[in-house]
Amino acid sequence: MTPAGIVVCRVDGDIDEETCTRLEEAFGRAAAEAATAVVVDCSHLGYASTVLLNALLRLRRTARTRDLSLFLEAPGPGLLRLLDLTGTGAFLPSSPTVAGAHSAVPRSRRASLRGTAAP
To answer: Per the structure, how many domains does the chain have?
Structure first.
């Protein structure tokens, strides 16, 4: 179960120039629906290229303008290596599990949502 205010956006397969538009549209919907955080589920991600990295960084910028937290859930070795090589890992915090990503939302933000419905 997803805590109130957190929207999970699952990335499936390989992300390239052709699939990036759909991915960015999904990211935009997730950011619009979230009250506290967007969690990007990378557990089914195939190939991770700079196309995905750029989309994630744009999502981060959108999240920041809406005062949302952003977390990557279960990024694989390829994505972790890409984040490491580009020095962007600090901007895109990650957790190997769903529970870890959800618990990474600051307590003060979770507490402020008590009694609200999940999106």
So the answer is: 1
